[in-house]
VanZ family protein (Rhodococcus oryzae), 104 residues
Amino acid sequence: MLFSPGSTVPSGPPNIDKVTHLLMFAALAYSARFAGIGVTAVVVWAGLYAAASEVLQGLLPIHRSASVWDWAADIVGVAVGLVIFRAWQAGRGRPATGGRDEER
């Protein structure tokens, strides 16, 4: 979705794309933690992926623009995903700091 041509991106209420960015990166961060990737690694690679995606949107001939606000929504999404994962782990009575490796 991040690299779809601008003409294929559906329109909606103003700034709804920020909600989409937040939800995509929340799902990405949650999934990464569920897969056992550590918090620091998730924050670093998801942050770099978010930044790279915005730069590429501005450079590629896909009629999209780079936006620092989209990047900010991505970063907030990463934080939301990590918080949701932590809450899920706490609800299961498991430590929120580890992935599958620490559960063994």
About this structure: The chain has a mean pLDDT of 84. The chain has one domain: 13-93.
